[in-house]
Predict the structure of DUF4168 domain-containing protein.
Amino acid sequence: MQRMTALFSAALLSLGLAATQAQAQQDEAAADNAEQPQATAPAQDFSDDQLQQFADASKEIAVIAQDFTQQLQAVEGEEAQMEVRKEANDVMVKAVQDSGLEVDTFNAIGKAIQQDPELMQRVQEMAKVSASTEDQSS
């Protein structure tokens, strides 16, 4: 669950989206995080390739998160919700891995952009350029 929330939060931050749909998930994650020591994001220099992979994966994760948020709202019962969350986590992890990044690297970049507005701006620009390139190739 913590991994999914970290991925989801990073995706929302990198794309500048509102996190209102995920409020319940984030509240739960905050409770989970309070029980575990926080890993601080090292002040790393990430390569342009890694940042581009992060931007691409973040866009995928934002779509996945939106889909699964709708599914989560449609199911009743804690067990069914946990199953949806597990499935969402698995799909998000696969999206990150398919982008060429390890989940830990993706999460480290996500934490770094939370602490570094310039890095966040750089990733957002990469996401915009990637989106416009995809539009032109269609």
